[in-house]
Design goal:
4-stranded antiparallel sheet, Alpha-Beta Plaits, 260 residues, alpha/beta, binds magnesium ion, globular, 8-stranded mixed sheet
């Protein structure tokens, strides 16, 4: 463990005083280092330990908020009992092992069927790109492809979607392009989690473009933490998942020291 920056430590000490604290965390690039095969990603042991320490403190809730489908998030995160799971950027919820999101309505089911048909031959033309089926859409993963192959795959995916389901929500991530018939964001997820848990303060940590939606709904008394490079509206930044783990460990100690 490394010491956390002084300004960040001060902010964490304030956050630790919250009546009910929600610690909401992105997974890939935040708790888990990036790997070529998304199914192989795992949280750093230090991050997992810090999450377990936070779960032991009363009036403290931990949630994982990911772009992954919730099944994939549960598998990769090996989420300890008590962690609330939010998948597909807020389109899927799993609380205490139970699905907590509404099923797709008829209109969205029909739109998803059109998307599915549109992508039927995609893998033949782009064998290096990986299609991930989600409850409300698709993700096209291009990690590991050279720039030309990645561009060609993403370009064709955009053309298919423009053709069969032009009002689908499109999200650009790191080596991933996603299409959803729902327009939920991680910001919606944080609003819902805050309401569901009754949290009086929120820490959100994330590394990617879609995490900015979550940062945007945080306010006074909350803490936004960016992991890694890239532009952000978050006032605090650390360099890597290892440093996120340091922050969570520090927060767990400060929270436990409040005597809760
Ligand atoms: Mg991420």
């Amino acid at each position: 463990m490394s010491p956390v920056d002084a300004a960040l430590t001060t902010a964490l000490a304030e956050l630790a005083q919250a009546e009910h604290l929600l610690v909401a965390l992105d997974f890939d690039g935040t708790l888990a280092p990036f790997v070529d095969r998304p199914e192989d990603a795992r949280a750093l042991p230090e991050a997992r330990l810090a999450v377990e320490r936070l779960l032991e403190v009363s009036h403290t809730t931990v949630a994982f908020v990911s772009g992954r489908a919730v099944d994939s998030l549960q598998h990769a995160s090996e989420a300890p009992a008590g962690v609330l799971l939010v998948g597909s950027h807020g389109a899927e919820y799993r609380f205490d092992g139970v699905a907590a999101h509404p099923p797709l309505d008829e209109v969205d089911s029909a739109r998803l069927a059109k998307l599915t048909a549109g992508f039927a031959r995609f893998s033949d033309a782009h064998p290096g790109a990986r299609i991930e089926r989600k409850p409300a859409g698709f993700a096209v993963h291009t990690r590991g492809l050279d720039a030309d192959a990645a561009f060609a795959a993403e370009d064709e995916a955009r053309r298919i979607v423009a053709d069969v389901c032009p009002d689908a929500t499109v999200r650009d991530g790191k080596d991933v392009l996603e299409f959803s018939v729902l327009d939920a964001t991680k910001g919606d997820a944080i609003v819902h989690l805050r309401d569901y848990t009754g949290a009086t303060a929120v820490l959100y940590a994330g590394d990617d473009v879609t995490d900015e939606d979550a940062f945007s709904v945080l306010g006074a008394g909350d803490l936004a933490l960016k992991s890694g490079e890239g532009p952000t509206i978050a006032p605090f930044r650390v360099g890597s998942p290892a440093e996120v783990a340091d922050v969570l460990d520090t927060l767990a100690s400060l929270r436990a020291a409040t005597g809760r």
